[in-house]
Amino acid sequence: MERLAGSGGVVRVGHLLPNNPKIAHEPDVLRMCAQDLKERKILPINYTLQVITMESCNKFSGVEHAAYLHYIKNATLYFGPGCNNEMLVIGRLAPRWNVPIIAHMSGDDVLADRTAFPTLGSVALTSASEMARATLTYLQLNNWDQVGIVRAATNYNRLSVHSLMQICKKMDVKVNVVIDIEATLPPDDIIASGKLKLLGANARIIVVEVGMDIISATNFMLAVHRTKMKSDEYVYIIPWLSHHSLASKSQSSGSFSGSVGSKQLLSANQAMSNGVRIAVKRFQQMRNITFVKSELKLLKELKLVENENLNKFYGIAFNQQNEFIVMWVFCTRGSLEVNILFFRRN
Q1: From first to last of its 346 residues, what are the pLDDT tens digits of the chain?
Q2: CA dihedral 208, 214, 218, 221 (to 10 degrees)
Q3: Does the first or last residue of the chain, that is N or C, have fewer Cβ atoms within 10 Å of its Cβ?
C-alpha cells in the first residue's frame, strides 16, 4: 500500500470485469461508490480508493490480469472475476498473495470451503449452492430419488442446478435426463425440438432453472402446458436466485403495482434529496426492472408535469436493500383528495 502524507494510503481495487454489455458500466458504479464513501466521510480522510479495471472470463484472461494487478499494480483487493472457472483459480491464488477477493456471484459449491478459499468473500444475495441444498432437501422429504433437470443452454454453471447435479450424485438421487434450452426460445420451438418428449419419457419430477429469475421459465412452462404435460402426473420444481419485485412493471402500460390484494406494502415517509424535501414510498424489489426508451421518455415528461393540487413527481430509485423507491416533491398543503372531501362536507 502506498503511503500518503500522514496516516493513510491508496487502496487499489483490482476490478476483473467480464465482457458483458449488461455490466459495462460497472467500473463507473464502483468509482461512484468510492466517491460516495469519501463525500460521506465513511472512508478515512487520508485513504483513497483507486479502481483498476481489466478484462476477465475470456479464455482465463482474468487469471492473467489478476497476476498482473498483483505483481505490477500491487492490488490491495480484488472484485470479480464473474465466472466460476476463473474464480476457482484466482480464489486459490489470493491467499498466497494475502489479499481478499470479493465475488459478486453465488458461485460454485466448492467455493464454500473456507480452508481452500480463506480470503474469499461473497456479496451474492442468494447462494446457488444453498439453493441446491434446499431443493435436495425438498426432494428427500418427498422421497423422490429420480429427477429430470431442465437448465439454461449457456452459463448454467452459475445457477443452482449446477450444484444440484453434483450433490445428487453424493446423496443417491438419480438424474435421469438433462435437457438444455434457451430461455428466450418460443414455446412452439421448444415443442418442435422434441426435448419435451425426451423429458416426459424419462422423468416425472422435474427441476427447471433456465435463468436467474422465475420469469425465465415462462416459455418452457407454456410449452409444457400446450403438450399436456402440466398434469398430476408431473411435478415441476422451479428454483430462482434473483430477487423479484412486488412493485412490478407491466410490459404493456409501464405501470407499477405496489400492493398485494388490498394491502399496501410499506407506508410513505419523508427524505431529503439534493436539498429537496421529498415524500417517499418504498416497495420491496424482488426482480430486475428495466425501462424501454418510450417509458423513460414518459417518466421524464411526468417529472415536468405541475399542478397546484398535485405533488410533483420527483423520480424513482433503487438501493442495496432491494427497495424500489418512488419519490414526490413534499408539500404540506392539502392534496386534491383532501380538498374534495373538504368541499363535500361544506
Answers
A1: 443 443 468 899 999 998 887 788 889 999 998 888 888 888 888 888 999 999 998 999 999 999 999 999 999 999 988 887 888 899 999 999 999 998 765 555 667 677 888 888 865 556 777 788 889 999 999 999 999 999 998 878 778 888 899 889 888 899 999 999 998 889 999 999 999 999 999 999 999 999 877 888 889 999 999 999 988 899 999 988 765 433 333 333 333 333 333 334 444 477 776 667 788 887 776 677 777 788 888 887 777 776 666 677 888 877 766 777 888 887 655 445 445 444 444 4
A2: 30
A3: C
Residues 6+ apart with CB under 8 A from 243: 125, 126, 285, 286, 287, 322
Could you tell me the residue range of the domain that residue 37 belongs to?
Answer: 9-122
What is the strand order of the sheet 47-56 is part of? 47-56, 9-18, 77-79, 101-103, 120-122
Q: Are residues 291 and 316 in the same domain?
A: yes
231 and 140 belong to one structural domain: yes
184 and 116 in a common domain: no
What is the residue whose three cell numbers read 464502483? 30
User: Residue 25's domain is classified under what CATH number?
Assistant: 3.40.50.2300
Q: Judge whether 4 lies within some domain.
A: no
C-alpha angle with apex 132: 130 to 138, nearest 5 degrees?
A: 105
**Final residue in a domain of this structure, among 94, 122, 150:** 122
Q: Which of 217, 237, 257 is the last residue before a domain boundary?
A: 237
Beta bridge partners of 310: 307
C-alpha cell read off for 102:
470479493
Residue-by-residue DSSP string for 11-26: EEEEEEEES-GGGTTH
- Of the candidates 8, 2, 14, which has an alpha carbon nearest to the alpha carbon of residue 94? 14
Q: Are residues 188 and 214 in the same domain?
A: yes
